[in-house]
Write a structure and sequence with these properties.
single chain, alpha/beta, Alpha-Beta Plaits, Rossmann fold, seven-stranded mixed beta sheet, four-stranded antiparallel beta sheet, 9 helices, 14 strands, 30% helix
Length: 275
Amino acid sequence: MDIYFAYHLKTKDDIVIALLSDLGFESFVEEDDDTTTAYISEVVRTEETQKHIDLILQQYDIDFQVEDILPQNWNALWEASFTPVHVDQFCIVRADFHEKDPVVLYDIVINPKMAFGTGHHATTFMMLSAMENIDFFEKRVFDYGAGTGILAILADKLGSTKIDALDIEIESFESIMENAEINGTKYITAIHGTLDNIPEEIKYDIILANINRNILLQSVTGLQHRLVPDGVLLLSGILIEDKSIIEETYFQVGFSTLFFIEKDGWVCIAMKKIP
């Protein structure tokens, strides 16, 4: 497994987090004080990427420290910082060392290691919340940029019978398989690669994409081709100020907005493919 770098940033600015996410940072943890810890792989943090990171941190006048995180240190770091996430009484996201909550409908166990997606970030929380309002029963689902597989796992629990969970990062691919097994899922297939690894002739009833603005804009045609008419597309990783450009871009290829959710400066948009 790769070595990771933890950037301890003296900020919780969503714009800074979004910019760093675009550069390949995989996970962000808001600490109790006014800091955010952002994680990036040694493989992704090239010399060119580091220049862009430095420019962003200088532009926003962010104080920071960088720490090397070896793979064997991650579990201890995770256990020390992770608390269960409740999405009302709909679902709970917890680690395997937390007790199960008998009140919630769906119990999700996530051991993320270095993969993104624990429910703590507003975008993942909103995706989980929005899924309560979508019919997944016996539906074919594509989780694009699946991270830990958290959304795919919930889709399986909601009754989906075919779920392809795709991520470009090998750590995420491994995490999806591990978490799918921990949760006793039946219908999740983990795929390591890009959108090009999903043939266009494969069609889905629902596509879940919690990534970032740039990838969502680049993927508009690819996602449109892989969704059935009247299919549902659930998008997040979008700052509120970028909502209009995302919607306008997807409107142009035949989507309409069903509903949206806002939280902490981020937005989650549910869209429908017009027949």
